[in-house]
Structure formats: C-alpha cells, structure tokens
Amino acid sequence: MYSGKSLPSLVCQFYYFSSRSLCRTRDRACPCVMLKNDPISSVRLLSCLDDMVAVGTESGLVVVFQLGSNVPGHSKKHQKFTIEDQHEAAVVCTEWSANGMKLFSGDKAGKVVFTAVDFYEGVCRPTVLITEPSPVVQLHYLHKTLLVSTHQRTLLCYTDQDCKIQQVGQKPRKRIKLLDNTRTGKPPSDQQFGLLYVINDQQLVSWHNGGLLVVDPVENLIVGSCYFRKPVLNIACTEEEIFVLTEDREAIRIAMKPETARLGNVQT
C-alpha cells in the first residue's frame, strides 16, 4: 500500500497512485483496461533505478509495470508486461528483488513462480519455483534466499543453490484460535489475522476483518487497538505511520503526528 512516495489503493479492476508531495491523485488506470472483470488481489511496489509495480489478479494473471519518470536519463514512457498461464488461482502476494530484476509471485493454490524481468530487452521469463499443498500467505526475498510461508509451514528457498528447500521447524504449523464471544446464539467465530508488520523498535501490528492490534512481544501486551465501520482489506506500515484500506475503499492514515500536506482522499 505504501512505498514511501506513493499510496496506491485497490479499486475493483484498477489501481491509482496518490502523490503525497504533489497532493494530487494520478490515475494510471488506463493501461489496465485488460484487467476488466478480473479484480486485483495483490500489489507490490518497488523504487530502485525505476519505479515498478507488480499487480496480481484473482484469475492468476501477473502484470508488471515500469512507470515513466521525469528524472534525466530515465524513460518517460510506461512499459507493461503480462505474465499468463502460470497461476491457476488468485495471486495473493508478490515480492521484488532489490534491483527489480527478479519477481516472485505466490497464489492460493500453493504455487510460487519466479519471473526474470528485463525491461531493456522487453522480456519476462517465468518459471514455476515451488508447489506447496496449501495456500501461500507471504513471500520475502533477501540475499538470494526466498522465504515462503503457507498455511501449513514456512520454508527457505536458496535460489543460488538450485532452489534448495529448507523447512523452518520440524512440524506443521499450529493453529491458535481466538474466540469472539457472541450473543446472537451462533457459534463463536475464529478470527483470522493478517501478516505481522514492524512499526518501531519493539512493537508489531496485525489486523483482522474488524480492525487492527498493536502488540509488544517483549512485554506480551496489546498496547493499542482500532476498529472500523467496514471490514479491513489490508494494511501497510512505516516506522511512524499505519495505512488501512477498508472494504468501502477508504484509505485511512493512523499516526502520532499529523501529515504536513493534505493527502487528498486519504483520511487522517
């Protein structure tokens, strides 16, 4: 949701960028007309030599964009590549390498695809990397090592060692249920939490359908919580800010300090 410079929001089959420095919304939905009737399920930003975006969809498409730049020596034109016939299920997470030459994507069927991206040659080369028996929930890439987390387990894939796989731990992932007491006579429901995000040196934030929680793992305390009128779709964090995207397409900023510039349609 937030890359440090721009705040995109998922709106049906389109995506938008809101420039915080220019205080205006730049609609880049036009190149996405091919995504009609195919809702976006994942977005990943990268700012390196160029600004790039990877978009995953419910049907299994992965669309890669290189955004035009006004910086001297950089292309001012947008480039787009569509990666098809690799995922048969919704793409739920994507991950860039630091230089933007590698893109990893994971789907609800447990498949992880590696794509070599070459904007200068104008080609993308996808390869199926891993196939797991349960949905992928998180990808993270660092130092030639890809972390893959699924509903059942977490593993490390060493991309410089013929994709050698090492499982984290010896047993399947345990499930810890949080029961929500109800007076409606219906059975209590399980709360499914999203990913954990670091917001400062000692606190983490996670979210579920109704809101978010800030926890201190050292003191074993919940230090804050926030609930919303509409279900939460996703959150993003920096060291000082939390951005929340809700089902009614609101982007909400939570922070200790006010934003110095107006954020357009972002509530604070």
UniProtKB/TrEMBL annotation:
SUPFAM superfamilies reported for this sequence: WD40 repeat-like (SSF50978)
Coiled coil region boundaries: none
UniProt cross-references to Gene3D superfamilies, sorted A to Z: YVTN repeat-like/Quinoprotein amine dehydrogenase
Record InterPro entries: WD40/YVTN_repeat-like_dom_sf (IPR015943), WD40_repeat_dom_sf (IPR036322)
Listed name of the protein: CNH domain-containing protein
Organism: Branchiostoma floridae (Florida lancelet)
